Amino acid sequence: MAPILILDPGHGGVDPGGGTNKLFVEKEMTLAISLYQYRRFQELQIPVAITRTDNDTTLSSEARTALVRNSGARCCISNHINAGGGRGSEVIYSIHASAALPRLIKDELEAAGMPNRRIFTRTLPNNPNLDYYYMHRETGSVETVIVEYGFADNPLDAEKIQLDWRELAEAVVRAFCEYAQLAYRPPAPSAPGSGENGDMPEWKRDAIDWMYEQGLLTTEDWRRQPDQPLPLWAEAVVLKRLYEKLRTPG
Ligand SMILES: [Zn+2]
Q1: Rounded mean pLDDT of 191-215?
Q2: Rounded Cα gap, residues 147 and 138, in angstroms
Q3: Where does the record place the MurNAc-LAA domain (predicted)?
């Protein structure tokens, strides 16, 4: 059965992508987002394909667009993280396509807490009849949308992506289902890839609860990624709070 949608994790292999910072590498974050969406579309029984499934695969622009062009899919979502100074998501679509899907993606990402910077099309400087981005220009009749989830070099965007990339990925799943008029169900709490931790051992949960009871951690977001390391600044905050606590008992 031909896929309705093909997902494209941006970059990969020797190309890490520019949307990289101290928290994540673009090619790895776009793969995590894409694999999450891939599993979710499968759960929803929506035929889906993907251009790469590991971080070692290098795809030339020719190979990548050929995969999309020959996939038989109606749509392609190409996942990226932006860089270069800005705040919020961007959705880029073809000059030959409508803004309907980009608008839904923008709305759903906003609802998931990521502001939108713009949705736009862009043409080649020397040819107003051709798309600027090869993912639009070389993917034939497939309706390709490039989603930039936020700016790696903006601290607010970067932290939001690092903490909530599953929610942002899910927002795009919701938008696509709405656009293609396919039945959408939210992820089951313990579904694989949903980011929940239904089977976390009690001793882990107790230890995490203790951090919150003691006021060492206050942001609820950390609870959702119990197996992820804290960034250095957050560790510093925890240690500082502990130090203050020990200096002023009671
Ligand atoms: Zn990119």
Answers
A1: 70
A2: 17
A3: 65-177
CA of 107 to the centre of ligand 1 (A): 21
Task: Compute, in angstroms, the gap from residue 223 CA to the centroid of ligand 1.
Answer: 29
Distance 222 CA to ligand 1 centre (A): 26
224 touches 170 (CB < 8 A): no
CATH 3.40.630.40 applies to domain 5-180: yes
Whole-number pLDDT of residue 201: 78
Centroid of ligand 1 to alpha carbon of 207 (angstroms): 38
What Cα–Cα distance (Å) separates residue 241 from each residue in 49, 121, 156, 237, 248?
A: 47, 48, 23, 6, 11
Residues with Cβ–ion distance below 5 A, ligand 1: 10, 17, 80
Q: Could you give the 3-state DSSP secondary structure of residue 28?
A: helix
What does the domain layout of the chain look like in residue ranges? 5-180, 202-247
Structure tokens at 239: 């240690």
Query: What pLDDT, in 10s, does the model give residues 229-245?
Result: 888 999 999 999 999 88
**What per-residue confidence (pLDDT) applies to 123?**
98
Residue 91 CA to ligand 1 centre (angstroms): 12
